[in-house]
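Allow me, if you will, to draw on your knowledge of protein folds for a short while. The matter concerns a single protein, recorded as an amino acid sequence and a row of backbone structure tokens. Could you please explain, in whatever detail you think fit, how the structure tokens follow from the sequence? I remain grateful for any guidance, and I place the record below:

…
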Amino acid sequence: MTRTSWKLIAAALLATAVACGKDSTGPVAGTLKVKLTATPNSGLDGAILFSVTGPVVPSAVGAGGGFRVFGTAAATTNTFAVTGTLATNSVVMTLTVDDITQVSQYSAIVTQVASLSTYTLRGASGYTLKVTK
């Protein structure tokens, strides 16, 4: 083989190695967070009831720091109750999923909230949850 042939082979091998080393576009398993992004009563609520919808059933759910979660993931839409002191930007729950790159396909909707001191029920107006990475 000539020197030019060896250079072409080396260039082709290098190009193949670089192409194979790029980030995968396939699924990336991991954990998503359900975060309370807005509340009119930050620090004054002690329980929240909400639904989470996503493209697939989460393989596991967990409570955020300082919270307890009640409910199981059995379908693509699930209802959960979480207790603990609710404040703006609190991560109330985590979801283990097969593909965190689909985070935009997950949503969470507040159904009811209860006050921390008396557990008096409040409506969902003014409360917002967001599913994030």
The beta strands are 30-38, 45-53, 60-63, 68-70, 77-86, 90-97, 107-115, 121-122, 128-132. The chain has a mean pLDDT of 90.
